[in-house]
Structures are given as C-alpha cells and as structure tokens.
C-alpha cells in the first residue's frame, strides 16, 4: 500500500524529472527516495518514470495518475493539515515559470530585483514553452505560471493581463539611413523570420503573414528564438519584425526601430495559472509579484520608440 509520502515523492519527480533534485526538494536522502520510487513502481506495475536525455520523463500511466495524486495531496494540504502557508522571507521554494526566451528575459531580471530583499532563498526555473502540453503542465503544477499570449488556454486556466505589446521592425541603418520603411523596400529586403509555432497563435499568424508578403526567397534566416534573431539583426543587413520590448536590448547606433509598413495585430501579454492552485499561498504571492509587470508600459524603460 502506498502512503502520503509516496504521493509526495511522485509529485516531486513529476516536477523535477530527477531523483537527486526531488530528494533535495523534499530534504530526503536519495536512497530513501529511490526506495519510495521502487515501491511506487511495484504498486502501479509500471516504470512511471523512464530515463531520457532530458532527465526522467513520466510514462503515460504516470501522466494519467498525476491529476488524482495532486488532488489527493491538495486535499491533504488544504483540508487535513490546516491552512497552507507561504513565508517568502524563509521559503526556499522553486517556482517554475514558462515563457518564451523574450518573456523570460523581460520578467526574470526584474523579478529578481523585486524579490531580492523579500525572498532571498526563493528560486526560479525558466521553463521553455511547449504549447501542446502547457495546459497539462499548469494543471499538474509542473509549471506554476505561464507568461505570454495564449487565447486557446482554457479548461481551468485563469489569466491576468500584464501589458499590451506590438510589433516593430529592426532595420539596419545602412539600409534605411533616414525616413520610414516603405512596403516596396520591405518586400525587397532580406529578412530574419521567427518560427511562431510554439509561441502562441498571434506570433504564428504574424509569421504566416510576413512569409506571404516578403516571399520565401527573401527569408535569409529562419530561427526559433526572437532573442537570437535580435542579435543577428544587430550584426547583419537583415530586417527583423519583433515584439517591441525586445528592442530595448539592441544597439540603436547600428539599427533603426521603425513601424512596419503593414498593419500587424497587437497582442496582450498575460500570466496564466491553473485554478487548482488559485488559493495556493506561494502561487498567489508569485502572481502578485508578476502583476507589477502591469506598470511596465508607464515606466518608459522597455524599448526605444519607433522612428
């Protein structure tokens, strides 16, 4: 028969994908955790977690069992063991935040600055986006908060608007010494295009529109990352169309930030969490810290204004 501790070990392995990290999270000797994992495997008649190049990955049975395990632990913590608490001043909890490279770059440095004196031992893990699995990862607690623009997230996912965003073009000064970027020059130029498949439907729609406008022969570089693309644009003769806040990283002596010659949809960046963790004190604290991002549009420090 499995115990409450077995379920806790299961949850820790789902979150960390590592026996050593799970043992560290639970402050448990690694041999003890391995013994609990062996007993879990015997109970379910399944490996539950298999070793891969990315760490321990859950089997389909583990993924199926996860919601029931989490509900049992949530019931214990919320109803049977008294009200849960979270003290940022003493906690060493690790929060998992899913976002694109731009999202992490925008959020994490500010967050670290904001919490430095409030939560000195709290840790953060940057989780790359995987849109097809994001709802499940929020539901299981593998991801605490997701940041981005995902209108297709539903099924128990709660959201809060952080700030509006728009697209701009990063253009070499040598290509556009002065004046605005015309549609003819835009079509004639070489471009860097970012694959939007895992970044949310707005990015994917914009990618498809740009691909149609400039044509495949004018797409010199196709990248998975806005951050990588921004550095390439800064050192090349290519045009990059990107969310405006990324341009705050660029050397504007080498590039111009201009409005696109075509109307592109703006979007709203939000934070997302699952309703199962809505009342979790730690999750609520993290959401409160992230809600300070709503003031970014008034700070005037995010990105240079388009020419």
TrEMBL record:
<dbReference type="InterPro" id="IPR000847">
    <property type="entry name" value="LysR_HTH_N"/>
</dbReference>
<comment type="similarity">
    <text>Belongs to the LysR transcriptional regulatory family.</text>
</comment>
<dbReference type="GO" id="GO:0003700">
    <property type="term" value="F:DNA-binding transcription factor activity"/>
</dbReference>
<dbReference type="Pfam" id="PF03466">
    <property type="entry name" value="LysR_substrate"/>
</dbReference>
<dbReference type="GO" id="GO:0003677">
    <property type="term" value="F:DNA binding"/>
</dbReference>
<dbReference type="InterPro" id="IPR005119">
    <property type="entry name" value="LysR_subst-bd"/>
</dbReference>
<dbReference type="InterPro" id="IPR036390">
    <property type="entry name" value="WH_DNA-bd_sf"/>
</dbReference>
<dbReference type="InterPro" id="IPR050389">
    <property type="entry name" value="LysR-type_TF"/>
</dbReference>
<feature type="domain" description="HTH lysR-type">
    <location>
        <begin position="2"/>
        <end position="59"/>
    </location>
</feature>
<keyword id="KW-0805">Transcription regulation</keyword>
<dbReference type="Pfam" id="PF00126">
    <property type="entry name" value="HTH_1"/>
</dbReference>
<protein>
    <submittedName>
        <fullName>Transcriptional regulator, LysR family</fullName>
    </submittedName>
</protein>
<keyword id="KW-0804">Transcription</keyword>
<dbReference type="InterPro" id="IPR036388">
    <property type="entry name" value="WH-like_DNA-bd_sf"/>
</dbReference>
<keyword id="KW-0238">DNA-binding</keyword>
């Amino acid at each position: 028969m499995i115990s409450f501790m077995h379920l806790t070990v299961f949850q820790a392995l789902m979150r960390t994908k590592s026996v050593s990290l799970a043992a560290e999270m639970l402050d448990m000797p690694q041999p003890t955790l391995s013994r609990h994992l062996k007993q879990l495997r015997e109970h379910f008649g399944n490996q539950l977690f298999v070793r891969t190049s990315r760490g321990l990955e859950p089997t389909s049975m583990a993924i199926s069992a996860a919601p029931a395990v989490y509900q049992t632990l949530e019931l214990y913590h919320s109803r049977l063991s008294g009200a849960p608490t979270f003290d940022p001043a003493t906690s060493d909890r690790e929060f998992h935040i899913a976002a694109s490279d731009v999202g992490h770059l925008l959020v994490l440095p500010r967050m670290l600055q904001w919490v430095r004196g409030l939560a000195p031992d709290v840790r953060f893990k940057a989780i790359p986006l995987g849109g097809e699995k994001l709802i499940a990862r929020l539901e299981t607690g593998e991801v605490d908060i997701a940041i981005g623009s995902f209108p297709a997230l539903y099924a128990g996912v709660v959201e809060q608007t952080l700030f509006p965003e728009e697209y701009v073009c990063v253009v070499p000064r040598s290509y556009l010494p002065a004046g605005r970027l015309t549609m003819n020059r835009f079509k004639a130029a070489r471009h860097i295009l970012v694959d939007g498949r895992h970044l949310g439907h707005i990015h994917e729609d914009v990618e498809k529109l740009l691909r149609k406008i400039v044509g495949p022969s004018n797409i010199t570089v196709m990248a998975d990352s806005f951050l990588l693309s921004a550095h390439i644009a800064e050192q090349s003769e290519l045009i990059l169309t990107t969310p405006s806040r990324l341009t705050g990283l660029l050397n504007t002596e080498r590039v111009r930030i201009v409005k696109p010659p075509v109307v592109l949809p703006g979007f709203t960046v939000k934070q997302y969490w699952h309703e199962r963790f809505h009342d979790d004190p730690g999750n609520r604290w993290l959401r409160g810290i992230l809600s300070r991002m709503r003031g970014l549009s008034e700070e005037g420090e995010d990105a240079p204004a388009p020419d």
